[in-house]
UniProtKB/TrEMBL annotation:
Keyword Oxidoreductase: yes
Matches recorded under SUPFAM superfamilies: NAD(P)-binding Rossmann-fold domains
Keyword annotations: Oxidoreductase
Protein name: 3-oxoacyl-[acyl-carrier-protein] reductase
Amino acid sequence: MSTQRTVLVTGGNRGIGRAIAEEFLAQGHRVAVTARSGEGPEGVLTVTADVTDAASLDAAFSEVEAQYGPVEVVVANAGITRDTLLLRMSEDDFTDVLDTNLTGAFRTVKRASKGMLKARFGRIILISSVVGLYGSAGQVNYSASKSALVGMARSLTRELGGRGITANVVAPGFIETDMTAALPEEQQKAYQEAIPAGRFATPVEVARVVTWLAGDDAGYISGAVIPVDGGLGMGH
């Protein structure tokens, strides 16, 4: 088992974020999640925060630090969608998605890096998406925000790599969540036919890649993009 760490997952009350928090907990780590509303899994410290508000994030980190010590592993997972075709997309549709998915990750990482630099250890994991590099009609805003995380991780690697801090991107494809379950059956089938693996991933398959990146075995991996997409986005 990897060394016990203090872990913070943003947007950890549902979906992939919740699965990531549960997996870190199962592996014996001290885990906190941020949520705008709702609770994280049992056994996890839930702190209320909105990644679009730096002051609320700062307060959340302070609460986690007071209870669990400095955050050693941060998973920037909080994200929103505002899907619509380009000509119908308002400027707010675009900037709101970037403010949460991209600038939100920046705010989270900036606050986390203070403790990491002091400790000369850190794991920064940014949750992107297959559409960040594959593209998706109706998601100009979302795919832009998710592909930008790659440049962020690589710049962080160059800036912080000498201090024992890694920064990596995990790019999930289609995952079995409430969101995909709500899709019409024909649409689900069409998506599955495009995926070489022929199925959607389970949230735990994403979570275990994240926990591995945070662990002792992945200390020499940084600036990487790891797809968990059944082969959907190959070649990117």
